[in-house]
Amino acid sequence: xxxxxxxKGDRWLWVNGECVMGRALKKITRKREKNSEKDANKRLSxxxxxxxxxxxxxxxxxxSFDKKNKNMVRTWRVFVGxxxxxxYCPACWRDSGYEQTRD
Length: 103
Hints:
Largest sheet: 2 strands, antiparallel
Structural class: alpha+beta
Radius of gyration: 26 Å
Shape: rod-shaped
Strand order of the largest sheet: 1-2
Number of domains: 2
Oligomer: single chain
Distance between the termini: 58 Å
């Protein structure tokens, strides 16, 4: 019923003084961590790829946007939906009502 070295109620399988289940558990944990790291890197690269699609004008009023201006980068809003990237100036973002729907 039980293998040599294993006792009833034990959570681990011990063979010749070595925990076999512990090694398997570590292997599974390492694989999960590696896969989650790969997923995170893929999501990040996808989002960085969307930066190239960023426009140079506000979607609503057509006001120009300068990517090198730190103040504009901090205050303007980027809306990503359906693979498209829309850019909104602060005034148009406030008027659009997106600010209220986010909360």
